């Protein structure tokens, strides 16, 4: 009897230890090219098989969004809206409609700095990765820019009974500045619903970190050196259950072969040209990536002073602004949370 009890205890202990081992989270990862950019999803899962299946579902969700909202995919909701501009309304998915409506709300909130109606300007400059036209190496003429600028008025975008109509036949919309953030948030939702408690989604720099790591430590995230050719991180910040998104003039650009002048992809709706102010990068930390996507662009366009003032009014949204003279400005909510790693930059505030 004693031997039997001993064997039973050893068996239970063995099963318990095996169970504990099986429950140890393992890191699964998958990279894909999506939404015109490099996608990277990593998650800790107690089952490698289930973890990989979850990553597949997350990417499937991203591809669904891309097929509806990409300006570069023929037959997408956005493509059909643009092709019917000035002709007739187009019935689209409720999902795309919701993102368009969010874009219109952000247009009001940013006082026009964020504008989903810049499709014609974006194509004219040809710098965007989601542009429907081929990249260029020469800036457009002033006449071309002013002509395109005449067709970015969101008053021309009409929504009625689930249908979208661009009344101006010369105007097109582009959701590139908001759809990527939305896709990150949706991929995170898929991970959460599958039981993932720790991981991250990164779509070309639009990042959401889910939970702390299994050992309880926070995710260490960095702000890249915005100088051309640099690859180092200048600032470190630790995050959990937050989004971090950066927009910078170093990310996508072309150099005019004749003048050697550089033109980047963040277009100012007021001028029609790439934004030219004291900023070189804007990093937004927020609860959702869609907020980070929008505000990183809008704050970059607003400039340093207006950008900082605006950020301080936004609940649960923080910012790190880097200027061309290598100064770093932060909002008050994270001023004590960042660590400067590159001493050639200085903390200005």
From TrEMBL:
Keyword presence, Repressor: no
EC number: 2.7.1.180
Record's catalysed reaction(s): L-threonyl-[protein] + FAD = FMN-L-threonyl-[protein] + AMP + H(+)
Protein's membrane topology: Lipid-anchor
Enzyme class: transferase
Keywords, ordered alphabetically: Cell inner membrane, Cell membrane, FAD, Flavoprotein, Lipoprotein, Magnesium, Membrane, Metal-binding, Signal, Transferase
Cofactor: Mg(2+)
Signal peptide positions on this chain: 1-21
Compartments where found: Cell inner membrane
Stated role: Flavin transferase that catalyzes the transfer of the FMN moiety of FAD and its covalent binding to the hydroxyl group of a threonine residue in a target flavoprotein.
PANTHER family attached to this UniProt entry: FAD:PROTEIN FMN TRANSFERASE, THIAMINE BIOSYNTHESIS LIPOPROTEIN APBE
Family that this chain belongs to: Belongs to the ApbE family.
Descriptive protein name: FAD:protein FMN transferase
Record organism: Clostridium formicaceticum
């Amino acid at each position: 009897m004693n031997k039997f009890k001993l064997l039973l205890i050893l068996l239970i202990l063995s099963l318990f230890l095996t169970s504990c081992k099986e429950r140890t989270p393992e890191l699964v990862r998958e990279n894909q090219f999506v939404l015109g950019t490099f996608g990277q999803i990593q998650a800790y899962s107690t089952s490698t098989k289930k973890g990989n299946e979850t990553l597949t579902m997350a990417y499937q969700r991203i591809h669904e969004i891309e097929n509806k909202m990409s300006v570069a995919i023929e037959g997408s909701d956005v493509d059909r809206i643009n092709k019917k501009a000035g002709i007739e309304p187009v019935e689209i998915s409720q999902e795309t409609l919701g993102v368009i409506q969010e874009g219109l709300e952000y247009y009001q909130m940013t006082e026009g700095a964020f504008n989903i109606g810049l499709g014609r300007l974006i194509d004219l400059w040809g710098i965007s990765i989601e542009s429907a036209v081929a990249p260029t190496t020469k800036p457009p003429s002033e006449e071309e820019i002013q002509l395109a600028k005449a067709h970015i008025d969101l008053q021309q975008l009409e929504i009625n009974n689930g249908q979208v109509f661009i009344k101006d036949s010369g105007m097109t919309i582009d959701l590139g500045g908001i759809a990527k953030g939305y896709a990150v948030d949706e991929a995170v939702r898929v991970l959460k619903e599958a039981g993932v408690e720790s991981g991250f989604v990164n779509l070309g720099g639009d990042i959401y970190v889910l939970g702390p790591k299994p050992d309880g430590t926070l995710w260490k995230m960095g702000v890249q050196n915005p100088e051309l050719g640099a690859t180092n991180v200048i600032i470190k910040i630790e995050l959990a259950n937050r989004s971090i998104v950066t927009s910078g003039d170093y990310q996508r650009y072309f150099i005019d072969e004749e003048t050697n002048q550089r033109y980047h992809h963040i277009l100012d709706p007021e001028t029609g040209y790439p934004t030219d102010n004291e900023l070189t990068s804007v990093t937004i930390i927020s609860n959702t990536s869609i907020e980070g996507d929008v505000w990183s662009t809008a704050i970059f366009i607003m400039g340093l002073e207006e950008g900082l003032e605006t950020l301080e009014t936004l609940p649960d949204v923080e910012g790190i602004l880097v200027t061309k003279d290598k100064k770093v400005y932060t909002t008050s909510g994270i001023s004590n949370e960042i660590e400067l790693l590159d001493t050639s930059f200085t903390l200005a505030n």
